[in-house]
Amino acid sequence: MALLTISGWAVQSTAFSIPNEYRLKRPAYFRSMETRTPLNLLLPSSPRSSMSKCPQKYMTTRMAAASTQLPPMADLAVRLDEPILSSKIYRGFPVWKSSIGGIVAYVFKTALIAFLVALTFALVTKLPSLFIGKLKPFAQSLSHGYKVSRGRVLRVFDERRTKNIKHPVGIPMDFSDEENATGGWGVCTLSSREEVGRSQFVKYEFDLPLEDNTLDLLLGQQVTLCYLDKREYVAKADYYLSSPRTSKGSFSILVPKIKRDYAIRADEDDNISPDFTELAIGDEIALKPGPETLQYRGQYFPVTDMVYFVAGEGIAPVIEQVKSVLPSGSSSVKLVKVVWMNESEKDFDVAQSTLEEDYYKYFKKLDVHCILEDFERNELDDNDEIIANVPRFNPGTMVVISGPRSFVGKAWEFLMETGYPDECICVFPSD
Asked: Are 313 and 403 spatial neighbours (Cβ–Cβ below 8 Å)?
């Protein structure tokens, strides 16, 4: 190993000499330099190195710059054959500690990334639902306000249209015996049958003899239909209109698709319940005004509250009555409540949109509750929703039960137990 000592200048060659004139001129300076600690560069010996061929006395050289002063740290010793940080420093630090540190750092970084990903996913999935949840009440409020405003506008139009009608619309159909000598019967023609939404009901429409004819029925009055079936039996029954009483040229009724068992029976006159499915479009049917069923027998006047306890197709006559008592000044009624139940939610398609429209026209006066209940199999007093929505009797309250006979009997008993007097209850049987 050759030792090269350099003080101050960079060396371009591994073997060089200093001219004698420099030694002669500045002997004092070089003597002072001899007292300094030399900078040692240890170079590995090599066969190709020219330093290996130099005599030992020339292996150590001292020199100084002629015109500049050497910096104070120029005598720092550096060894090129050893690293700056000695390996002795790492001898006391086990390798397994370094490996564990790397593993811990990797695990921590992976866990942090996973946490950030999970947090981002949670924010992306939860924020919309939270945002929508907070906006939902606001949207419902806006929707309710819009419907109420629209209802008020429609109510104004209805009132103006009613005032402009000075004479009855259409020509009342004549059922007098003196005019037609038919025993008070008239003739209509089956014009169409149509399923009502998703419900179990079918709407049958009949044409009157003239386009301007009206049935001119009273509120709550039925129409009686009669025809001969295929076995030459008289099929006869009373129905409530599902169309307005003032409709010109035609009328419609609402009938279940499947006839109830007790509806197919013979009465004292050997009459059976009609089955309109056996009729063809264009078949003629006899008709005449039916029974008047809207009768108040109570002693509390005036009637201020109307409660309609309804099931199934019994909503058809109730719609007409609700429309007649809601307008301001049309009656003494101040509050109308409709409790309508069906076995299936689909059966509300019959009149739910109509009731909703009337509600927003008169939301301060009309209250509507639609309840799912199998009224043919279950008892009404077992349903807490029915109990909560049927008000207690107050003087001036009249209640109307409207629906199939399987419902009418149960509803009557329920109302009597609730406290309603018998004379304040009116029944609309729909079959």
From this structure: yes
- Whether the ω angle into residue 391 lies within 30 degrees of 0, i.e. cis, is no
Helix axes 352-361, 315-325, angle to 10 degrees: 10
The C-alpha atoms of residue 61 and residue 3 are separated, in whole angstroms, by: 10
Alpha helices in 221-327 (DSSP H): 315-325
Kindly state the DSSP code that residue 327 receives in the 8-state scheme.
S
Which tens digits make up the pLDDT trace of 309-350? 999 999 999 999 999 999 988 899 999 999 999 999 999 999
Q: For residue 237, give Cα distances in angstroms to 186, 219, 234, 264, 327.
A: 15, 18, 10, 11, 32
Cβ count near 343 (within 10 Å): 16
Give dist(CA 113, CA 126) in Å, integer: 20
**Residues for the chain: how many in total?**
431
Note whether 400 and 333 are within 8 A (CB). no
- Of 307, 369, 367, 382, which Cα lies nearest the Cα of 342? 369
The 10 Å CB-count burial string (b at 16+, else e) for 147-174 is beeebeeebeeeeeeeeeeeeeebeebe
Residues 109 and 107: their CA atoms lie apart, in Å, by 5
Question: Is 209 strand, coil or helix?
Answer: coil
